[in-house]
Specification:
Strands 1-2-3-6-5-4 form a 6-stranded antiparallel barrel. With 143 residues, the protein is mainly beta. It has 1 helix and 6 strands. It starts with 9 loop residues before the first helix and ends in a 7-residue tail after the last strand.
Length: 143
C-alpha cells in the first residue's frame, strides 16, 4: 500500500528525517578564548564552547576521499576518513575546525569519538537537513 505524497512539504519531510535518521545525540564545540595563566606567564586554551548539542547523525562517505596531489603536496583537507554530519536545519552552522563528538547512540563504540569540521555546512534552496563534511580524529578501537 503506497502513501500519498501529494501536498507533502519540505518541512514535513524534514520532520520525518529528523525523527527516523537523526536519532543520535551529537555535540559541536569550538575552542574557548585563550586564558592567561599568571603562574606560567602564558596564554592557555580556554574551556571549549558548545555551540550545539542535540539530534544528529554521522555517516561515512563510502570510502576514502580522492583528491589529486600537486607537486607532492596534499590538499589542505585531504583525508582518508571523510564523513558527513547531518543536523537539523535549526542547528547552528558549524565552522571549520569545530569539533563534533558523539554523545549518545545505540552503537556504544561511537560514543566519545570525535571529528574535525573541514568545511562549513552545505546549504541549498532544497534542504531537508544540514550536511557538514568532517574528518575523524579518533580512529582507534575503544576511543
Amino acid at each position: 500500500m503506497s502513501v500519498s505524497t501529494e501536498g507533502l512539504t519540505l518541512g514535513a519531510v524534514s520532520a520525518i528525517v529528523e525523527k527516523k535518521i537523526l536519532t543520535n545525540k551529537i555535540r559541536i564545540y569550538r575552542p574557548g578564548e585563550p586564558v592567561f595563566n599568571p603562574d606560567t606567564g602564558q596564554y592557555e586554551p580556554g574551556p571549549p564552547r558548545t555551540i550545539y548539542e542535540g539530534p544528529g547523525a554521522i555517516f561515512p562517505t563510502g570510502g576514502p576521499s580522492v583528491v589529486l596531489h600537486l607537486a607532492g603536496q596534499a590538499y589542505v583537507d585531504d583525508t582518508p576518513s571523510r564523513y558527513r554530519l547531518l543536523t537539523p536545519l535549526s542547528a547552528p552552522v558549524a565552522s571549520r575546525e569545530d569539533t563534533v563528538a558523539v554523545v549518545e547512540t545505540e552503537d556504544e563504540s561511537a560514543i566519545g569519538r570525535t571529528w574535525r569540521v573541514i568545511d562549513i555546512g552545505e546549504t541549498s534552496t532544497l534542504s531537508i537537513v544540514r550536511t557538514t563534511w568532517v574528518d575523524q580524529n579518533t580512529q582507534t578501537a575503544g576511543a
